[in-house]
Amino acid sequence: MRRIIFATKNKGKIVEINEIMKELNLQILSLEEAAIDIEIIENGSTFEENAIIKVKEIMKITNDIVMADDSGLEIDYLNGAPGVHSSRFEGENTPYDIKNNKILDMLKGVAEEERTARFVCVIAAGFPDGQIITTKGVIEGIIGYEIKGENGFGYDPIFYVPEYKMTTAQMSSQLKNQISHRAKALNKMKELLKIRLGEAI
Description:
Low-confidence stretches: none
Shape: globular
Mean pLDDT: 92
Helix content: 25-40%
Largest sheet: 7 strands, mixed
Number of helices: 5
CATH architecture: Alpha-Beta Complex
Structural class: alpha/beta
Order of helices and strands: EHEHEHEEEEHH
């Protein structure tokens, strides 16, 4: 079975990725599961740049296929913030309930039509021959007025999707894995992997 090292330490993300990619005969491992301990400086100015930076760093130490994503929350009222700084907003190790409450405070009194936001995800995959490919997924929504839901992680509890009348943290994993930004990017990547790896999977 071919291995893919996914450049993340986020256990929730790995569960999500494995669920979406399960039809492929691939073993997807986190950095921890692959026994890789490395600090990567994500100094790109876009999600794509950061995803590629992570892939290139891990490719230096393994001959496996390497994948990485960079994703974040863009809030129009905040001029696209926190954007590429989503994980480092209010401090990298700050709990997300504090980050989420900070955003709710920043949007206090802001009308619903001005609370538009989106989750963006770019996934990069690097192959032993040096080729790197990327895919992108986006989900549009608004910032809610309170924290709601237990199922997601990160900014999910404040990201409200009007079409479904709930936050992404209130969605079942089945629904979220159909419509989320990461699901859209992963599904595009899955199709590219089928073409790239062919009979190997």
